[in-house]
TrEMBL record:
Protein name, per record: Myeloid-derived growth factor
InterPro entries cross-referenced by the UniProt entry: MYDGF
Coiled coil: none
GO biological processes: positive regulation of angiogenesis; positive regulation of endothelial cell proliferation
Annotated Gene Ontology cellular component terms: extracellular space
Length: 182
C-alpha cells in the first residue's frame, strides 16, 4: 500500500497572475491552467495534492486519487535506483467541466528508468496531455517527451512501445467531464 500524505495547498499572493497558458497543444484546445486547476479561493473539495513513493524493481504499481466521481490512476513499472518521492495533484474546475491530474517528481529529474506507464482518467474524456523527461526545478525547464513517445486516447495516456525512452518526471492530463447543465 502506498504511503499517502496530504500536502497543503499553496496559496498565491494577491495581485499575482493565477494562470499561464499551457503548451501550444493545450492552446489549440482552448485550455489554460486557470481553467483546469481551481483558483486559490476554491474550496478544499476541488483540489488535492498527495505524496507517494515511486518504487523500482520492475513490478507494476498503481496509485489513484480522485475528487467526487472523477479519478486519476497512475500505473507504472520502473528499474534502478531507490524509491523516489512523487506528488499527484487532482483538481476540478469551478464549473465542474474540467478535471486535471498531474503526477511529478518535485526534485526535477527522475533517476529511475520507466519500462511502462499509464495515466487513466475516469469520468472524463481527455482534452490535453503531455509527459516530460525533466521538470522545472533548480533553474531547469520542463523537457517534454517527443510526441511519438506517448499515446493519448479518450481516457488514457500511455508510453508508446518501442519509442518511449524510459525517462519520465512529470505527466499532466486534463479531461472534460460529462457534466451537463439541464
Amino acid at each position: 500500500m502506498a504511503r499517502r500524505r496530504e500536502i497543503p495547498q499553496i496559496r498565491r499572493r494577491p495581485g499575482k497572475p493565477d494562470c499561464k497558458r499551457l503548451t501550444s497543444a493545450a492552446s489549440y484546445h482552448g485550455l489554460s491552467v486557470c481553467e483546469a486547476v481551481p483558483k486559490s479561493d476554491a474550496t478544499d473539495d476541488r483540489t488535492k495534492t498527495v505524496e507517494f513513493n515511486v518504487k523500482p524493481g520492475g513490478v507494476v504499481h498503481t496509485f489513484t486519487e480522485g475528487i467526487r466521481e472523477y479519478k486519476c490512476s497512475f500505473t507504472y513499472a520502473s528499474q534502478g535506483g531507490t524509491n523516489e518521492q512523487w506528488l499527484m495533484s487532482v483538481g476540478l474546475s469551478d464549473d465542474d467541466r474540467l478535471f486535471s491530474c498531474s503526477v511529478w517528481r518535485p526534485q526535477g529529474k527522475s533517476y529511475l528508468f520507466f519500462t511502462q506507464f499509464k495515466a487513466e482518467l475516469k469520468g472524463t474524456k481527455i482534452e490535453y496531455a503531455n509527459a516530460y523527461s525533466q521538470t522545472a526545478a533548480g533553474g531547469q525547464s520542463d523537457v517534454p517527451l517527443k510526441p511519438e513517445e506517448i499515446t493519448i486516447g479518450d481516457s488514457t495516456v500511455t508510453h508508446t512501445d518501442g519509442k518511449f525512452n524510459a525517462q519520465l518526471s512529470k505527466l499532466t492530463v486534463i479531461g472534460r467531464t460529462r457534466h451537463d447543465e439541464l
